[in-house]
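Hey,

The postdoc asked me to send both predictions to you directly instead of through the lab channel. I've kept everything plain text so nothing gets mangled by the mail client. Protein one:
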Amino acid sequence: MKRQSAGMASFARQLACLLVAATLAASSMAGERVAAQRPEADRNENLTGWLLVAAPRMRDPRFSRAVIFLAHHDDKGAFGLIVNRLISVRPAAKLLGDILGEDAPDGNGGDEREIRIHYGGPVQPTHWNFIHSNDYTGSGTIVVTPKVSLTRNQEILRALANGKGPAKGFLAIGYAGWGPGQLEGEIKRKSWITVGPDDGIIFDNDMETKWQRAMDKRGVEL
């Protein structure tokens, strides 16, 4: 257990400079003017599975032009992962070694499959989640929508390193979190625009267009 914790801490340190670079790059793209926005969210509306799209007026550079998948939302708070902030791509076999300190068996496809690593958010940068398609279910898997699941158990890393696991997905380092009523307040202040579930935006590899595509789904023009 100590070895795994040390491996994750070391892995997080390796990515630290990339996280900073990704945040600074995103902040330089802020400042556009929005013409129309979705009406204020109902406080009782459950947005689990929806996308949060940072409004052009977003002042926090950590979330500039961010698209966030809301994995959980209720009256106690919300939890989400940024889906358009790529920081690294690594072979599944190497990822297994980086995080768990384990070697993947040879010849099982772990060296060929590349796994995207995202900046998931500013909270707990040594905490990871794997967001993926619903063709994989393992210990600790939470089905969020009919097409998107979330797994925190290390078994998914072993499955990927063995050439198995979900067809689509990526690993997110850190997450975005809100306390009771906090997200609703930010939506009311028009810091965020809400967009319905869209696995195409979540899993697409084109990071540069995700924000605009999500904005376009709500009829927003810059």
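Protein two:
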Amino acid sequence: MSDNGGKGKAGSSPIIRKIKKNQHKHHGGSWKIAFADFVTAMMAFFLLMWLIASLNKAQKDGIAEYFKQPMKITFFGGKNVGNQQINLKGGGPNIKDTNGQVSTTDKASTQSKQAQDIQVIQSDKEQTQKLEELKSQINLSIQQDPSLSGLKNRLLMRIVSNGLRIQLVDNKDQSMFDVGSDKLNPNMDPMFAQIAKLLSTVPNAIIIEGHTDAHPYHNPDELEYTNWELSTQRANAARRALIKAGLNPDRVKRVSGFGSTMLLNLKDPYAPENRRISIIVMKSSPNENLILKGDHIMINKSNPSNQIQSNTSNSNTINTGDTTNKSTH
């Protein structure tokens, strides 16, 4: 038994086990694309940081002003940094130079541009000073005139980027116009007369704007008459009042209506102070062609019949006679 068992054990074939190792497949290249995008984004970020670090305070303030109120800068102007030359640190053949380099061919034009910028800044300061004096004269004349004592709280004045903004506003007790009307109330005549007298002492161009509150204009007989037309008609009525008081008609370069799109009191769109007339005394004479082609409803100066024309259609004119319109607002 033992021999048989021994033979059987010796005669069995050996079992060989082979461990197969799975070879990893070759990785794709998608990670390279993601990494390249990451590197590009980082390069753009540090380039942006470099450019921002190269700006001075005035240029940064100009950019910040635009992003705060882009529509305001578009319509009324502001600090313009678009035409200024910025010398970036580094650049040029000498990579160790961190003060910025300008090619010799551009030095003359750069110096000329800098001289012009200095003149513009000096001129702007002088005009701002003159407008500050005009503002003080208006305040003083209203305080000294007893007939205007009840209107002084309705007069707002502020120096803005393009000139002196004089605003005549309504309050809960007094209004410049009747509801839905473009006929100026007689109690405003002394105020317009005094303003026209003082505006005649300076040669600056003048822009007049009309604004309404957010109450919609309802008139079933004239469905096309809205706050846009009403604000424009009221601005034109203010123009006529100033001219009647002695202001040179050629001084008025634009009459615009903004409806309720530019509220003075943002918290209460229906507040009476949103109904106002703005008179802007410009710092310098604006480009008349640009004004007449602007995106506002304005005076058609080629028409002697005192009509208002919208630039959306050359044939769409609105009669600006002193008519009283009915409204529910």
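Summary for protein two, as requested: The beta strands are 155-160, 163-169, 206-211, 252-257, 276-282, 297-299, 307-310, 317-319.

Thanks,
C.
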